[in-house]
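stage 2 :: seqdesign
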């Protein structure tokens, strides 16, 4: 009789483990072989690409790259250059010299606004003034009185939130200010937020509104820079009326608060003004 092989339970388990290990080794070996084959194929391809025959290389066109040039500055118009040639940019003109010169610098067909651009000694300079001859533009005044007309205030706030600003001055009663806080981020940067210092927060809004409609307006330096921008009339006013308006504005700001001042119209170059005699 032949020998009978008897398997124990432990031997069977061991054989299964060995079989699994052998299978795992075979898979790993196959993966390594595939990776080596891909690497070899890549190297051959790269070698063939770099060993291009001379005659073929000669036919390969060279691609020339051009460096981009910087964007050129926009050239000023002939009329602007002509106007600039009439003044000395480094000179500070007396107001009596500057106003006749400003009339010569007129370029537009419409009645240009006359502007003052002032560098002040510090930020936060504010106040109100009434020009003796006005600005040449009607001032649009709106009153916000929540106690008297809450519906109007709510509608006004919605209009401002939508981005529509149809006024030059907003006057509010003290009880209305908490309501306007919702649109402070819209009104503030435009200099339109009512403020007690500028007289636009008051218990007598109708009385103050008449003053603003009569030509009174507020001025304030920019939020981040010590600069003021004022409209002081129209070119059609003539030298004397413009001189009166400018002198009034300078007194309201106070000469000691002015570092430098430039006079210009809507389309003209700026004229530096000597402020010591104003």
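stage 2 :: out
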């Amino acid at each position: 009789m032949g020998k009978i092989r008897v398997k124990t339970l432990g031997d069977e388990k061991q054989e299964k483990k060995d079989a699994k290990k052998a299978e795992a080794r075979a898979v790993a070996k196959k993966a390594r072989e595939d990776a080596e084959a891909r690497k070899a194929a890549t190297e051959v391809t790269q070698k063939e690409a770099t060993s291009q025959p001379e005659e073929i290389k000669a036919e390969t066109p060279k691609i020339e790259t051009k460096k981009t040039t910087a964007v050129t500055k926009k050239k000023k118009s002939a009329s602007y250059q002509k106007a600039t040639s009439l003044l000395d940019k480094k000179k500070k003109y007396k107001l009596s010299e500057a106003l006749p010169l400003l009339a010569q610098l007129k370029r537009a067909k419409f009645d240009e606004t006359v502007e003052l651009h002032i560098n002040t000694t510090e930020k936060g300079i504010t106040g109100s003034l009434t020009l003796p001859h006005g600005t040449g533009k009607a001032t649009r005044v709106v009153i916000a009185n929540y106690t008297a007309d809450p519906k109007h205030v709510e509608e006004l706030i919605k209009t401002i939130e939508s981005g529509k600003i149809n006024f030059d001055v907003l006057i509010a009663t003290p009880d209305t200010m908490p309501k306007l806080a919702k649109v402070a981020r819209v009104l503030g940067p435009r200099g339109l937020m009512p403020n007690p210092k500028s007289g636009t927060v008051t218990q007598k809004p109708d009385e103050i509104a008449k003053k603003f409609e009569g030509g009174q307006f507020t001025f304030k330096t920019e939020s981040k820079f010590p600069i003021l921008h004022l409209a002081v009339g129209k070119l059609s006013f003539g030298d004397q009326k413009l001189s009166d308006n400018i002198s009034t504005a300078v007194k309201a700001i106070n000469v000691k608060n002015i570092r430098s001042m430039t006079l210009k119209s809507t389309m003209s170059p700026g004229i530096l003004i000597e402020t010591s005699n104003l």
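stage 3 :: structure notes
- Strands lie at 113-120, 126-130, 141-144, 169-172, 216-220, 227-234, 258-265, 271-273.
- The longest strand covers residues 113-120.
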